[in-house]
Amino acid sequence: MEDAAVEGQDTRVVYPDVDLTEAVDHIYRAGADGAACWTRNDKGQLRQLPMNRWMGVRSTNHHDSLADEHVLAQCSARPTLDLGCGPGRFTAALHNRGHAALGVDSSCAAIELTRGRGGTAMRADVFTPLPAEGCWDQVLLADGNIGIGGDPVHTLRRTATLLARGGVVIVDIDSPTTESCYEWIRWETEHYLGQWFPWSRVGIRALGAIAQSAGLLVSHVVEIHERVIAVLTVAARAT
């Protein structure tokens, strides 16, 4: 369904009075039930959401398994904050390895799913006060979450305030061929349309400049098939 257009009459229902978080709850619950979900942007392009991967379903995609394992390998036993944790596959995986981890998401369904698989999670907006600010050794922005709010520089600056001295930000972004862009998107299923919200897609070619604008440096990058995992550190201040 990548970048495709839907043909024929669209009979799905839009719920204009439903809060965005409720719409996201609907999508996560649909994904948990095995429904296909996708995003539509303001240009009408569709992208399939990797719901099985997000839900932690054992993948037959070797590349996805490798990429997830590489993300986890960047997290030490020191505390990790998983921003936009979704259904919590990384938060729970770290917990199962005996590592301290907290998932944060604005979706009630995401928090329920994360806790249901054994992870610790709280419902909150990433731009509101969070526990132990300035004390996290790793902050995780998986599955393109650098694009939260549509302003990746702002998101990274916020993320940097959460880090302990020497801490790192681990970002998991789109494929190496992705062109960075700002867009409005909504999540959809066969019978449901979500609410529009701002988002940014970040490509590897723009990541260095975006990180630098946020006071961070790209210290490590690995490309694994359709995903790019990068480790960012706080840039040294001039004296």
Helices and strands, with pairings:
Elements: E1 13-14, H1 20-32, E2 38-41, E3 46-48, H2 51-54, H3 62-73, E4 80-83, H4 89-96, E5 101-105, H5 108-116, E6 121-123, E7 136-141, H6 152-160, E8 163-173, E9 181-189, E10 192-193, E11 197-201, H7 204-213, E12 216-224, E13 227-234
Parallel strand pairs: 1-10, 4-5, 4-7, 5-6, 7-8
Antiparallel strand pairs: 2-3, 2-9, 8-13, 9-10, 9-11, 12-13
Report on this structure.
This protein starts with 12 loop residues before the first strand and ends in a 5-residue tail after the last strand. The chain has one domain: Vaccinia Virus protein VP39 (Rossmann fold, 3-Layer(aba) Sandwich), CATH 3.40.50.150. It contains 7 helices and 13 strands. The strands form 2 sheets. Strands 6-5-4-7-8-13-12 form a 7-stranded mixed sheet, with helices on both faces.
> What pattern of helices and strands is seen along the backbone?
EHEEHHEHEHEEHEEEEHEE
Task: Give the C-alpha Rg.
Answer: 17 Å
User: What is the CATH superfamily?
Assistant: Vaccinia Virus protein VP39
CATH topology: Rossmann fold
Q: Biggest sheet, in brief?
A: 7 strands, mixed
Unreliable residue runs: 1-18
Instruction: Specify the number of helices.
Output: 7
Q: What CATH first level would be assigned? A: Alpha Beta
Tell me, what's the shape? globular
Q: What percentage of amino acids are in beta strands?
A: 25-35%
Portion in helices: 25-40%
For the termini, the CA-CA separation is 51 Å
Known CATH architecture: 3-Layer(aba) Sandwich
Which sequence of strands runs across the widest sheet?
A: 6-5-4-7-8-13-12
